[in-house]
């Protein structure tokens, strides 16, 4: 009899424990749902900024808060795992690298927006910018870009740019072939209605002419060119606009942070300047210590002999006066160095602004695109014959096989150089980039 009583008590205790656990789980779930119901998702990205006058009074040094969003547990978990546990044998990984040049598996996990770490120097946080700044038209050209990477570019600009300085975002689709960049993109862009202009080219124009098309539709005071696989950081635009507001002939670039192509981790970059070698290959170069020792310390503007070209800001009127891009160039390549030389040699300045930070996916392309390589050579030859004067022999010393190759008609660009009263390439070497030392035997 005693054994029976003990067994009944034992099983009763187990049943009581089970019911208690179930009741606790049910209460916790209902409580969580009630808490989430209190949070309403805004109708659009801009819905937290309906009172435009109120935002104006905050001052541009404050970052607009990202719009409120409720994540499901699955989304939160996927973002925690994004960049970790990469399965290198996943065929989808190889396919993504082949098509886009980075890990699209993780890009899908990250989704259409995310927060990135603030990589600015702490001294930048103390900077304040005027309430009234020029307005900006952000131009983003894309061709067969991965959908989520493109959308993160757009949403980061919207979420981290005060509305009163963002005139518009101009998206130029350079005849993309992928389905998700057509009706699907139109559908998702509806949330940004009123701030987005989407232009679809009727034929493939290439990056250079696509950017010119975007610029022709711009109405902002300043043109900001942005690659389609970027994520801007906090208070990214105000420092660029402030520098241009002080001098309309200043062209400015942010510090380009690295978004790793495999993990998509956002990583800070050191403050460096743009440079190139005699083969006209762009490279990053160390900044001289004396440039970091001025009154602004490591947050002051840095003179840069060249720019990478993926992200920069220029006053719209000055862009037109200085000759825009060379329309005779094809597709992509060389336009960044050509514009860099033109800025310096024709009376402007090219600066890197350390308090502005923009992340950029460092794509690794697994395919050799013969057409792109041809365009790069053709464009570089146009640059050489217009801007390098007698120093073009330094380029041909490195690449003698290109000396007899065709580079089209450059008479319009030669005339532009005369009309602008541009200085010689010798002046550029002496004044801007003396570190590019020629071999004196060939001068």
Automatic annotation (TrEMBL):
<keyword id="KW-1015">Disulfide bond</keyword>
<dbReference type="GO" id="GO:0007286">
    <property type="term" value="P:spermatid development"/>
</dbReference>
<keyword id="KW-0472">Membrane</keyword>
<dbReference type="InterPro" id="IPR045885">
    <property type="entry name" value="GalNAc-T"/>
</dbReference>
<comment type="similarity">
    <text>Belongs to the glycosyltransferase 2 family. GalNAc-T subfamily.</text>
</comment>
<keyword id="KW-0735">Signal-anchor</keyword>
<keyword id="KW-0464">Manganese</keyword>
<feature type="transmembrane region" description="Helical">
    <location>
        <begin position="9"/>
        <end position="27"/>
    </location>
</feature>
<dbReference type="Pfam" id="PF00535">
    <property type="entry name" value="Glycos_transf_2"/>
</dbReference>
<protein>
    <submittedName>
        <fullName>Inactive polypeptide N-acetylgalactosaminyltransferase-like protein 5</fullName>
    </submittedName>
</protein>
<dbReference type="GO" id="GO:0005794">
    <property type="term" value="C:Golgi apparatus"/>
</dbReference>
<dbReference type="InterPro" id="IPR001173">
    <property type="entry name" value="Glyco_trans_2-like"/>
</dbReference>
<keyword id="KW-1133">Transmembrane helix</keyword>
<keyword id="KW-0812">Transmembrane</keyword>
<feature type="region of interest" description="Disordered">
    <location>
        <begin position="50"/>
        <end position="87"/>
    </location>
</feature>
<dbReference type="InterPro" id="IPR029044">
    <property type="entry name" value="Nucleotide-diphossugar_trans"/>
</dbReference>
<feature type="domain" description="Glycosyltransferase 2-like">
    <location>
        <begin position="137"/>
        <end position="313"/>
    </location>
</feature>
<keyword id="KW-0325">Glycoprotein</keyword>
<feature type="compositionally biased region" description="Basic and acidic residues">
    <location>
        <begin position="50"/>
        <end position="83"/>
    </location>
</feature>
């Amino acid at each position: 009899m005693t054994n029976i009583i003990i067994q009944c008590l034992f099983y009763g205790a187990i049943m009581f424990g089970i019911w208690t656990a179930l009741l606790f789980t049910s209460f916790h779930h209902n409580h969580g749902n009630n808490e989430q119901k209190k949070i309403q998702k805004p109708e659009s990205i801009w819905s937290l900024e309906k009172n435009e006058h109120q935002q104006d009074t905050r001052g541009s040094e404050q970052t607009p808060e990202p719009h409120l969003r409720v994540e499901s547990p699955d989304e939160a978990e996927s973002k925690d795992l994004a960049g970790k546990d990469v399965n290198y044998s996943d065929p989808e990984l190889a396919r993504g690298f082949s098509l886009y040049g980075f890990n699209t598996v993780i890009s899908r996990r990250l989704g259409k927006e995310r927060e990135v770490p603030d990589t600015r120097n702490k001294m930048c946080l103390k900077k304040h910018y005027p309430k009234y700044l020029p307005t900006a038209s952000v131009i983003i050209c894309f061709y067969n870009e991965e959908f989520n990477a493109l959308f993160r570019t757009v949403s980061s600009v919207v979420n981290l740019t005060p509305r009163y300085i963002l005139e518009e975002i101009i998206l130029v689709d350079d005849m993309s072939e992928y389905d998700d960049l057509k009706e699907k993109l139109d559908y998702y862009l509806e949330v940004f209605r009123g701030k987005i202009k989407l232009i679809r080219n009727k034929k493939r124009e290439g990056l250079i002419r696509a950017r010119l098309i975007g610029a022709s539709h711009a109405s902002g005071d300043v043109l900001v060119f942005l690659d389609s696989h970027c994520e801007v950081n906090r208070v990214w635009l105000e420092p660029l606009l402030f520098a241009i507001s002080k001098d309309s002939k200043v062209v400015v670039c942010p510090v380009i942070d690295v978004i790793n192509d495999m993990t998509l981790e956002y990583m800070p970059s050191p403050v460096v300047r743009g440079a190139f070698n005699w083969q006209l290959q762009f490279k990053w170069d160390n900044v001289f210590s004396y440039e970091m020792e001025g009154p602004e310390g490591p947050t002051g503007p840095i003179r840069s002999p060249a720019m990478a070209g993926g992200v920069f800001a220029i006053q719209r009127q000055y862009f037109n006066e200085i000759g825009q891009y060379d329309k005779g160039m094809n597709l992509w390549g060389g336009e960044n160095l050509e514009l860099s030389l033109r800025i310096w040699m024709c009376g402007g300045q090219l600066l890197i602004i350390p308090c502005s930070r923009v992340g950029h996916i460092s794509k690794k392309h697994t395919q050799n695109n013969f057409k792109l390589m041809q365009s790069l050579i053709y464009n570089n030859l146009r640059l050489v014959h217009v801007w390098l004067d007698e120093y073009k022999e330094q380029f041909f010393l490195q690449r003698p096989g290109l000396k007899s190759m065709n580079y089209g008609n450059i008479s319009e660009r030669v005339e532009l150089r005369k009309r602008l009263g541009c200085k010689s390439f010798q002046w550029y070497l002496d004044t801007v980039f003396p570190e590019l030392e020629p071999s004196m035997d060939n001068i």
